[in-house]
Amino acid sequence: MKLFHLFFLAAAAIGNSNVQAQDVGAGPNPAPNPDATLAYIHSAWDTLTRSMTDCHSLGDSKVTVNPVVYMPADVPAPPEVAALREKCHVQVLALPRRIEKLADVRPEELHAQGLLYLPNPYVVPGGRFNEMYGWDSFFILLGLEADNRPALAKGMVDNFLFEIDHYGAVLNANRTYYLTRSQPPFLTSMIRAVYENPASFAATPAGRTEARAWLERAYTLAEKDHSTWLRPEHKAGATGLARYYDYGSGPVPEESDDSTYYPDVIRWLVAHPGQGEGFLVKGPEHPDAGEAARLKETSCDVKATVVCMRAWAAGYRLSRDFYVGDRAMRESGVDPGFRFGPFDGATHHYAPVCLNSLLYRYEQDLAHFAHLLARPEDAARWERQAKARNAAIHRYLWREKEGVFADWDFVHARASNYAYVTSLYPLWAGVATREEAKLVVEKLSLFERPGGLSMSNFNSGLQWDEPFGWAPTNWISVDGLEKMGFREDARRIAGKFDATVDAGFAKDGTIREKFNVVSGNSNVQVSAGYKSNEIGFGWSNAVYLKMKEVMAAPAATPVN
User: Could you give the percent of the chain with pLDDT greater than 90?
Assistant: First the structure.
């Protein structure tokens, strides 16, 4: 079956269900008011800003324990952090040893999960996400700079440099249960955004000296962060490409003991036999010692965590391989959908278009920094790496006959036939040629809806599929179209996305983490997996501002 053909019929079949879903709770809505949306965004940065001196920053609704703040093993707690013991009634502890790379300290070694210290204030996404996230922060940073908050933006990048230096890499977020995984690698794009912003450093000789010293440190630590993606576990077989991978094992700690996520996954798989092959294993709800020993090898260690013990339904447990994929899915930031099998349980079997496009951009940025720092040998090395990755992307991920970039299943040596909006990432990253970009743009109808770009054209019931659209993928797509000269397409989609945000804000006075782009509002009803639509929301606020810039830019003739 040809790539991307598989879901045309499925998309048509679910069209009516999408329309029905949008009508639930519908009623007369106030007229959208972009000025009101903008006012909310301008004030939201302060609402979403956290710091280590603020008790509100320490709470974590995902893990129901008393707050704990962890310092790096080699960094003494500054007085303002030590004062948190009395001020916020929290423990302030040191990690057991210095961390050089991800998983040098594992969450299960710690007597309680907690917040990892960062030196500067930072903006959180909002809702249940009360920490600084790896890829959310790139989009948030763009919004901060668009809203003239350069000091806060620079401080967030400095926090990421601190993470690399003291926690081994850019983390999924600054919680101890994220010490085993990263997130989509946008660090060098953040460094460029700060370094190239005239407001980041004083326009004086001293300011220029400070900027160069800052870039030198950022470059050195970005090299270290990049090495995370070259570790053997992150290699996508022999393709020369990378995959997502979490160095932990079993179910994740943040699915706390009151979460039903894993039992819900099991119930869905049991109800849909033949899907998610290898994701289920037989197992009792209350295993004896012998069963517990078997499950430790085939599923997870029921004696180690309550999360594992409670991950049971209908006589089944999830397989060890599912948990590897589940953790990799969480590193991807796209959690969950059906792109890599049900609930993305096979994420670790794929070389994804998104990750490898981002790494190509990362390597090109490192080459650029090396040139700025007068390190020609470094620049040549990074250019060779980028060139090799580009060749591998075109060998494995570019499907010329279909005119799309598609993920590669390196375990079964086959291209994915799942239509996904990440096919546009190579335009943003500079991987796609102009001719390839034209072909990808011809497939925009796979994803374009009245309210922006949908993640896919298949309604799995999960939040990262049809009919849902998200700020990060809408921005990467729009900015990629803009960069490649398809400005009318970029302006059209930018307008659709912002109109969706305006409609949602007019309805209830909030901005959400995701949107229903079929109905063009924030009426999101997820049938399985994560069902909430969090309020805040950092990256939606930021992308709304950036879309305004695209719409305000002069039109241009598309690339021929």
Answer: 89
Last residue in a domain, options 297, 314, 330: 330
**Mean pLDDT over residues 234-245, rounded?**
98
Mean pLDDT of the region 444-466: 97
Q: How far apart are CA 37 and CA 44, in angstroms?
A: 10
492-541 residue pLDDT tens:
999 999 999 999 999 999 999 999 999 999 999 998 778 899 999 999 99
Pairing of strands 115-116, 68-71: parallel
Cα separation, 411 vs 237, in Å, equals: 8
188: CB partners within 8 A, 6+ apart: 222, 361, 362, 365, 366, 369
Stretch (H or E) spanning 71 = strand 68-71
Phi, psi of 459 (to 5 degrees): -90, 95
Which of 330, 345, 367 is the last residue in one of the domains? Answer: 330
Structural domain containing residue 535: 1-30+419-560
* pLDDT at position 529: 77
CB distance 170 to 163 below 8 Å: yes
How high is the pLDDT of residue 20?
Answer: 31
Torsion of Cα atoms, 174 then 176 then 182 then 185, to 10°: 10
Q: How far is CA 223 from CA 146, 217, 301, 369, in A?
A: 28, 10, 36, 11
* Mean of all residue pLDDT scores within the chain: 93
User: What kind and span of H or E run contains 18?
Assistant: helix 8-23
487 in a domain, yes or no?
yes
Q: Is residue 100 part of a domain?
A: no
Greatest CA span in the chain, whole angstroms? 71
